[in-house]
């Protein structure tokens, strides 16, 4: 009996200890890195707010298009070219917010289309993307150091395949486009995990460029959000077409 109760106690202690393993792993993240992550996520939230403003400006003023896309890429390139010094911090932050604003305006036509079809799609897509981003980022933060960095090679290969799939979708149409959407969604969800761990690892080695790191996570978030919006919009359009066919039959 003593051996039986002893075994049960051991199991309880091991399961209880295993439950706190994820919390203990946070101890590997130094206070400096934790402070850096706070700056990164606060800057990311600011960029998302400016992106929403850009989408709103497109809906009101119809400014989104090729020019805003080119302007966004130019702002990002200029931001990356500037050194991450205190003298350039305000300029780099302003460039990030400008890039986010122009990115939002570029996505504005898609947002406008979604709002005209069903505004609930936009809310559902944003909330779903935010939850996925939070879960994958938390998994990367709680995990052991460098545990997911091996994904870098796989994701870069998958990204090159994605570019070829986009080229094929432009030529062959519907079926390749659908596959490219879901494949791209998986790729950028993987990048959420990889980029978060890479940011933590770079911060451990002294790279505290929170503006550039926020830009990396911002691109991941927008890439996932756009694909979720397109998938949900596509499904809603197919359902509406099916309903119209049923009404015609009856």
UniProtKB/TrEMBL annotation:
Bilayer topology: Multi-pass membrane protein
Compartments it resides in: Membrane
GO cellular component: membrane
UniProt KW Transmembrane keyword: yes
Swiss-Prot/TrEMBL keywords: Membrane, Transmembrane, Transmembrane helix
Main subcellular location of this protein, as a coarse class: membrane
Record keyword Transmembrane present: yes
Annotated transmembrane regions: 63-82, 94-115, 121-141, 148-169, 175-194
Any Pfam family matching the protein: Bax1-I
Family: Belongs to the BI1 family.
Identification of the protein by name: Bax inhibitor 1
